[in-house]
Structures are given as C-alpha cells and as structure tokens.
Amino acid sequence: MTHTTTSGHGRGEAGAARAALLRRTLRRHAAGVTIITVPGPAGFTATSFGSVSLEPALVSFCVATAASVAGAVQRADRFAVHLLGAGDRELADRFARGGVDRFAGTACLRESGGLPVLTAAPAWLSARVVARHPAGDHVLVIGEVDAGGIRQEAPALVRHDGSYATTARLPPLRAP
Q1: Can you give the residue ranges of every domain in the chain?
Q2: pLDDT higher than 80, residue 6
Q3: How far is CA 171 from CA 32, 123, 147, in A?
Q4: Strand positions, DSSP E, 54-122
Q5: Per CATH, which fold does 31-158 belong to?
Q6: Which of 88, 126, 103, 82 has the alpha carbon at shortest distance from 40?
Q7: Confidence band (pLDDT; 50, 70, 90) for 1?
C-alpha cells in the first residue's frame, strides 16, 4: 500500500505535491461524464456534476476559472446538464476539446433564453443558477432544477483511471 502525506498550505513544492496526490488519487474514483451547456451557446465536458439537495431540487458543477467557457458560465442565469451514455464518447471528447466549435454537428433544442439542450444525451436537466462560489482555481455553480427528461435508458459513461468506461450491474450478494 502506498501512503503519501503532504502538509502545509500554499503553492510551491508542497502545493504541487498536493495537486499531484489529488490527481493520482482521484484517478481511482469513477465519475459520471456530463456536458454542461449555457446560453451563448457555450458548453464543456464535466465530471464534477452532483446532486446537492432533493428539497429544493439542487444540483452543482464546477468550472475552471481559466476555462474558455468560464465567462459564459459566470454570465449565465441557467444551465443544462446532459448525462451521457456509453455511446457518447465522441460527444464528450468534442466538448472537452478547446479551439473547436463544440456545437458543430450537434443536434440541440433551444430552451427559454437560448439555453441549448443536446438531443443526443440519454438524460438531461435544466436549472436556474442560485449560487456561485469561488473554490480554488474553480467556481462552484449551484442551480435549482426546473426541467429535465430521460430520452433512453443507457449505461452511463464514466471516467475512471484516465479513460472512459461504462457501468455494469454486479450480481447480487449471496446470503451467508
């Protein structure tokens, strides 16, 4: 078993060591792959999406402050999150790439205020932004869900150990 300890605060060598530890450790954590879109249109691939609360229905995601979409996300009053399926790797890669028109060739509907909703995603939610919080080199965005849908049942696309993967049900545990 490998055990790494870092201490102290700030940047420099200790900060770089903590960042490397976080990256290495989080490669062990499987995360659902989503695409976040905002009016503009702008969008990006994210694994930071999560549920915050059922009552009220709140969800969140993070965006890097240096990301090309950061300004559009900061200005947006709404966002859509698209939960990707196992067949959506190409779509995830396109929205992760910089310097390209991420929406080119991507079918989408425009919700109120120009919010793009990708029609290829198996499931989606839209939300009204209720809070933004600076969080290190990212911004945490929280939204209250106002619409959504499931278009098809599909195994989830996940990111694990630096690669795409998908989910599979495990057999039930046998009683002792």
Answers
A1: 31-158
A2: no
A3: 21, 25, 34
A4: 58-64, 78-83, 108-110, 116-118
A5: Pnp Oxidase; Chain A (2.30.110)
A6: 103
A7: very low
Angle at 72 between CA 23 and CA 132, to 5 degrees: 65
Spatial CB neighbours of 163, under 8 Å, sequence gap ≥ 6: none
- Spatial separation of the C-alpha atoms in residues 176 and 174, rounded to whole Å: 6
Do residues 37 and 116 make contact, with C-beta atoms less than 8 angstroms apart? yes
Task: Quote the distance between the C-alpha of residue 51 and its chain's center.
Answer: 11
Residue 92 token pair:
């995830």
Closest CA to 89 of 117, 118, 111, 121: 121
Per-position DSSP letters for 51-97, written without gaps between them: EEETTTTEEEEEEETTSTTHHHHHH-SEEEEEE-BTT-HHHHHHHH-
End-to-end alpha-carbon separation of the chain, Å?
29
Collapsing DSSP to helix, strand or coil, 109 comes out as strand
d(CA 37, CA 103): 10
Q: Each residue of 54-69: pLDDT tens digit? A: 999 999 999 999 999 9
